[in-house]
Write a structure and sequence with these properties.
This protein has a 7-stranded mixed β-sheet with strand order 1-7-6-2-5-3-4, sandwiched between helices. A 7-stranded antiparallel β-sheet has the order 15-14-13-12-18-17-16, with helices on one face. A 4-stranded antiparallel β-sheet has the order 8-9-10-11, with no helix packed on it. Helix 1 crosses helix 2 (53-60), helix 6 (136-144) crosses helix 9 (190-201) and helix 11 (285-302) crosses helix 12 (386-403). The protein starts with 7 loop residues before the first helix and ends with a helix. 30% of the residues lie in helices and 26% in strands. It is of the alpha/beta class. The protein has 3 domains: 8-212, no CATH class; 225-300, no CATH class; 304-403, PH-domain like (Roll). It has helices spanning 8-24, 53-60, 71-74, 82-88, 100-111, 136-144, 156-159, 182-187, 190-201, 205-212, 285-302, 386-403; strands spanning 28-33, 42-46, 65-70, 91-93, 115-118, 147-154, 172-180, 241-244, 254-257, 263-266, 272-273, 306-317, 322-334, 338-342, 347-351, 361-362, 366-371, 374-380. The chain has 12 helices and 18 strands. The mean pLDDT is 94.
């Protein structure tokens, strides 16, 4: 077996550090922690609200656990952290691409009696709603065939939203409970496994917040969210949404359409209100985002569709643990193909967009294209187009799944 346990001393030190951060920074409350009494092999599948989610998970799991991490995330950590990361022996893989080698390494963990931690969505949410769960997740859980736990996080989206920087302190929770035991997995049908996992992992942070009403630092400062909610739900124009200060406010707490004047203002809990009365009220950014996706999905289904942009390209350099500039190129997407071409860099990549639910990205900044072991980070000349490309890939994937 190729499995190497996390170094006990390193894991213990990081576990204790995570405990401090979990309690002081993330104010994390454990609703349940059924994992603490588990002695045998098991897998933990967790929802993904924020890049900081593993901190609370690490704090909750005293027993050394093997985490599955994305290649780009692990290999761009600062050089000073790399030795510590290597001693943790994570399973590093490309996002939304699970090779036979990856599956074998995961199997080796549980066959050796270890704890395996997976974030199936592979991507933290950009709008408060859960990203799609790859179909391969359900097959993997069955194949692993061990006690399966869910780690459901809540509040972390508001603490560290993907569309801005910094930490916004406030209460978070983590609920860890057993979803299946090993014997149960042998008798459950694929549909039952899929249904149970989806119910456990799918979430809407804003709906949870409406009932919890937890205050987070600067929750009403929504500057950056316009990169996600790029289309006006009232007039339908794209890239006209701006973050502005409402009258009497010192922070950018309002999204306003420069075309028709439609606006929504966030309260101290991050919930939207239509204070001017122009058009319909959309309380949750997640709902606004879903409307954009639904319209795009209908457009792609009914019309000829293509989108392209000029990009600067950087390539992941494994030696320096950073992305290095390699030239300019063009990124193009249609229903049939996703293409990245650069004569300057000598690359021509073509992939089928319906095969993956989403791509790694940062709203208003970048998109990652994965090709085998290579990762190309693309920076569009018009960065606002990033979210439209991502939503288009989501829509193409959904349409393909509906036709099966």
């Amino acid at each position: 077996m190729s499995y190497k346990k996390p170094n006990a001393i390193t894991y213990s030190a990081l576990h204790n550090l995570a405990l401090v951060l979990s309690r002081s920074v993330f104010k994390n409350e454990k609703l349940r922690n059924e994992l603490k009494n588990e002695k045998g092999p098991c897998v933990v599948i967790a929802n993904h609200e924020s890049a900081m989610d593993p901190v609370n998970m690490l704090a909750a799991c005293r027993r050394p656990a093997t985490f599955v991490l994305s290649n780009a995330y692990a290999n761009t950590m600062p050089e000073i952290i790399q030795p510590t990361l290597r001693r943790m022996n994570p399973i590093v893989k490309q996002q939304f691409q699970t090779s036979i080698k990856d599956v074998k390494r995961m199997l080796d963990v549980v066959k050796s009696g270890g704890v395996l931690v997976i974030y199936p969505a592979g991507m933290m949410t950009e709008d408060g709603a859960s990203t799609p769960i790859p179909e391969a997740t359900y097959k993997l859980v069955r194949k692993l065939g061990v006690n399966t736990y869910v780690a459901r996080s809540s509040g972390m989206y508001f603490v560290h939203p993907k569309w801005t920087s910094g930490i916004r302190k406030g209460r978070t929770t983590l609920d860890i409970y057993k979803l299946f035991d090993a014997e149960e997995l042998k008798t459950l049908g694929d549909d039952k496994i899929k249904e149970a996992i989806a119910e456990a992992l799918l979430f809407d942070s804003y709906k949870d917040q409406e009932s919890a009403l937890v205050k987070y630092d600067s929750a009403n400062n929504i500057e950056g969210l316009e990169k996600v909610l790029y289309q006006c739900p009232e007039c339908g124009e794209e890239f006209t949404i701006n973050a502005v200060c409402a009258e009497g406010s010192e922070v950018k707490n309002t999204l306003r359409c420069a075309c028709c004047g439609y606006e929504q203002t966030a309260d101290d809990y991050g919930i939207f209100h239509n204070r001017k009365g122009l058009g319909r009220e959309i309380k949750f950014p997640s709902e606004w985002s879903r409307k954009i996706l639904d319209k795009l999905k209908a457009d792609i289904e009914e019309k000829e569709f293509s989108i392209s942009c000029n990009v600067r390209i950087k390539k992941l350099d494994y030696n320096s643990h950073s992305f290095k500039e390699i030239g300019a190129g063009r990124l193009s997407l249609s229903r049939e193909n996703l293409e990245l071409v650069s004569e300057e860099a000598g690359i021509s990549i073509s992939q089928k967009p319906h095969k993956f639910p989403i791509l790694p990205f940062v709203p208003g900044k970048q998109i990652d294209i994965q090709d085998g072991e290579d990762v190309y980070r693309c920076f569009p000349e018009n960065p606002e187009i990033v979210m439209k490309i991502i939503n288009s890939i989501k829509a193409i994937h959904i349409l393909a799944a509906e036709k099966k």
